[in-house]
Amino acid sequence: MRLRVLLATPSSPERLHTLMPWAWALRTAGHETQIAGRPDFVEAITATGFVAVPVGPEGADGTRLDLPEDAEGIADHALRWRPEMVLWDGAAPAAADAAARCGATSVAALGPYEHPAHPGAHLTYDCLPPSLREPDGTARGQERTGVRFVPYDGSGELPSWLGRKIRRPRVLVLGELAPQTVAALLSSAEGLKAELLCRLPQDRVPAGVRLPSQIRLLDSVPVMATLPTCTAVVHDGSAALTMAAATLGLPQLVVGDGPQGTVAAVADRLAAYGAALVAAPGGPVPALPSLVEDPGPAERARLLAKEITGLPTPREAVARLVEAAAAR
């Protein structure tokens, strides 16, 4: 059975990227796919190589796709295109309402975020491994099927330095880190037997801070190409980056310095599991040796990675999607 599948995403590059493994799994299995999003997010969608369907109003809150106008726009297109399935990000519940209107199978593909339960999903997939799920084992109050998180962060160019032989452990440092956090990290790197790759322009180095010899400052880093070469990562709390590093078995230091000043809930659960250190916004930053030289977080991170890679991939889940669509 060949399906038409309409995916839906809010205007968030991170959330779009967490849907892409589903989109590619469906396309490579021979199914027809389109992605619905706000008009001002169309360019980001088409950059992935998929057909974009503009829906809803421009300039609305980009973190969610949940307005009546969103549901109406998705439903109008679905009634014309007639998809057998609508697969939506957890922050795009308008797609579930649209699926009900056009009689399509509704699939919630939950990323590593917090979402309230939505009654409109026939199937709910949760990319969090059992060890990081809510205590009751459900997917935000719904029956769920586990699926592997597949890291993706868009296209990029491989720099020449990344192809060189790695001579010592490597730590990637990236994110919107506050000056005091940068200063604390650089100071604690003195004498550390590891190379630090910092996505940090020279002009963002706090005044008076001495750069240890093993630090490399970079304006840009192809994150998903660099992470597999690392032994640890320091970042500002992104849920997708937290899960990407967890999938690769990397211990993490997570600092809530991002634009929202918060740490994703999945990072807190990772810390409770023992595979990460989390510093609260404005709080003390753990020294890098505690991340790199302590075997505890690394061992727990490797154990969690085995759990994650034991889950079926989106490609392996496609057969179940076809069965669900055929049964309706």
Walkthrough of the structure:
The chain is an alpha/beta fold and 328 residues long. It has 2 domains: 4-148 and 311-326, Rossmann fold, CATH 3.40.50; 160-309, Glycogen Phosphorylase B (Rossmann fold, 3-Layer(aba) Sandwich), CATH 3.40.50. The protein has 11 helices and 13 strands. The protein has helices at 13-28, 42-46, 68-81, 94-102, 179-188, 223-226, 239-247, 265-273, 288-292, 295-309, 314-326, and strands at 4-8, 32-37, 51-54, 85-89, 105-110, 123-126, 145-146, 170-173, 195-199, 215-218, 232-235, 252-255, 276-279. It has a 7-stranded parallel sheet with strand order 3-2-1-4-5-6-7, sandwiched between helices. It is elongated, with a radius of gyration of 21 Å. The model has no long low-confidence stretch (mean pLDDT 90). Residues 24-58 form the Erythromycin biosynthesis protein CIII-like N-terminal domain. It comes from Streptomyces fimbriatus. Residues 185-323 form the Erythromycin biosynthesis protein CIII-like C-terminal domain.
